[in-house]
Write a structure and sequence with these properties.
Strand content: under 5%
Strand order of the largest sheet: 1-2
Shape: globular
């Protein structure tokens, strides 16, 4: 699907977001979350954890496939992706330790995503922008509930996802730091589901898969490169301090 652009993908995502609650009923067990969002109620903690873990598992799957793909990136750009992979996996492991249960174990991507640099940059920017917004929503939920440690932790993660967004924009030869504030797109984490749905079920036009998530050996192999990459593994989530 070489003609897929960020604009056309976002247009489809907006259309998905407009689907009625009946059409979304039962989607990966999110019907309750969508109902809460429509009523203006906050996602519960388990919903936040489950959706965040799903996003992180997808992100690590996505970056590993890019690392192993045919994008023709420079060594420096490949290091960006390896560091992004490590951080996404760290986020995933943290969420799992808190009882998260991912709702998908394999994923779908646009055909040609890992051999077309422009498409990879554009689609990854969409995903990372959505992740930032989702973690900002989680920060709002935890802050509203007086859960300061969790609110700070989700803000920490949002900051890292924003770094990923900037770097994939740079890979696509677009200004990396193009805004004063990250975008707050939705009040609940469940608001991210329509944008991410094609990656979860392959429903998008031209999506292929499924793509299996990284194995333990694949995770360990890239983690072993952390020192050579200059990756800082010492910073801890606030909730664990």
């Amino acid at each position: 699907m070489k003609n897929l652009t960020r604009r056309s993908f976002l247009k489809g995502s907006v259309a998905a977001a407009g689907v009625g609650a009946v059409g979304l009923h039962g989607l990966f067990g999110f019907s309750t979350a969508f109902a809460q969002d429509m009523m203006g109620e906050d996602d519960d903690v388990q919903t936040v954890l489950n959706l965040a873990a799903t996003a992180e598992l997808f992100a690590s799957t996505h970056y590993l496939a890019a690392i192993n793909g045919d994008l023709g990136l420079s060594d420096v750009q490949m290091n960006y992706l390896k560091a992004a992979f490590i951080s996404e996996r760290d986020h995933y492991d943290l969420l799992i330790s808190q009882g998260a249960q991912p709702v998908a174990s394999e994923f779908y991507v646009p055909d040609g995503l890992f051999s077309d640099v422009a498409m990879f940059s554009q689609i990854t920017e969409v995903a990372e922008t959505t992740f930032v917004s989702a973690y900002l929503a989680a920060t709002r939920i935890f802050a509203s509930a007086g859960q300061t440690a969790f609110a700070v932790t989700t803000a920490q993660i949002a900051g890292v996802e924003s770094e990923h967004r900037a770097l994939v924009r740079q890979i696509g030869m677009r200004l990396p730091n193009d805004r004063s504030y990250e975008q707050f797109q939705f009040a609940n984490v469940s608001g991210a589901v329509p944008t991410l749905q094609p990656f979860l079920d392959g429903s998008g036009d031209g999506f292929v898969g499924p793509v299996a998530p990284p194995s333990d050996d694949e995770v360990a192999a890239i983690r072993n490169e952390a020192g050579d990459l200059g990756y800082n593994s010492d910073i801890q989530p606030y909730a664990a301090m």
